Amino acid sequence: MSGAALHIVFDIFAWASAALAGWIAARIAPSPFPLGAALRRDWLVVVIAGAAAGAYVFGTANLWASGQAGVARSIEGAIFGGVLAVELWKRLNRVTARTGAALAAPLAAGVAVGRIGCFLAGLDDFTYGTPTALPFAHDFGDGVPRHPVQLYESAAMATFLAVYLIAAPRRAFVRRNGFYLAVGFYGAQRFVWELLKPYAGIVGPLTVFHLLSAALLAYALIMLVNGKRKEPQ
Predict the structure, then answer these.
(1) How many domains would you assign to the chain?
(2) How far apart are CA 182 and CA 193, in angstroms?
(3) Cα(183)–Cα(220) distance, rounded to whole angstroms?
(4) Which of 149, 144, 121 minimizes the C-alpha distance to 133?
(5) How does DSSP classify residue 29?
């Protein structure tokens, strides 16, 4: 099976894993959705549209910034696009409720599984790391041992998922703010792994994804601080 075909297979696995993780989280740490049926449909459309646009816009922007032609998708671009679209929609509709609680586990599971597909897709996926002499380096077929950064990210998000599923039933703050914890952790770990990728910088040494990672981390921290202030004392 080709790398591209394996990537598609793991994309399907990622969606299935996200659904399973969401189902498990809903059973052990329920987080009721705060919107009615009509607003819920609008919210879902906004999430999907924002994520799709962000995935292609930022994935392609990074590709072009790195001197490569074509169109690309990015999971980080999808997360950023979905978050931005929903926050704008909430502001326009004067929705103050936090709507992402149920997405914490699916986000972590989807990234953890999806990144395995990126790893198996090889060089064509353009998600590999820089050369390294570490013993766990991986040769993607060009004779150059590289950081398997896809697996680093997969392991990081799988670890987050495990910790979240343990903590959420015990901690109300984690249940209410799980999405922001997931987004913040994702942004922080992704920023680190971007230091090990061959992407071109657009602001000094910072790549497109460094900037997105910093923005997601800042967003999560702001939302977590605001959430903490609103907790009963």
Answers:
(1) 1
(2) 16
(3) 6
(4) 144
(5) S
Structural domain containing residue 46: 3-230
Q: What is the mean pLDDT of residues 57-81?
A: 94
- Mean pLDDT for the chain overall: 93
Contact (Cβ atoms closer than 8 angstroms) between residue 125 and residue 90: no
- Classify burial at 33, counting beta carbons within 10 Å of its beta carbon; exposed 0-12, middle 13-18, buried 19 or more: middle
Q: Classify residue 142 as exposed, middle or buried by CB count within 10 Å of its CB (0-12, 13-18, 19+).
A: exposed
Give Cα separations from 168 to 48, 130, 198 (angstroms): 26, 36, 37
Closest alpha carbon to 118 in 22, 190, 44, 23 = 190
Distance, CA of 144 to CA of 173 (rounded, Å): 45
Residue whose entry in the numeric block shows the structure tokens 């959420």? 168
Instruction: Give the distance from CA 215 to its chain's centroid.
Output: 13
Alpha helices, DSSP H only, in 29-171? 37-65, 75-92, 104-121, 149-167
- SS3 label, residue 139: strand
* pTM of structure: 0.93
Q: What is the pLDDT of residue 3?
A: 65
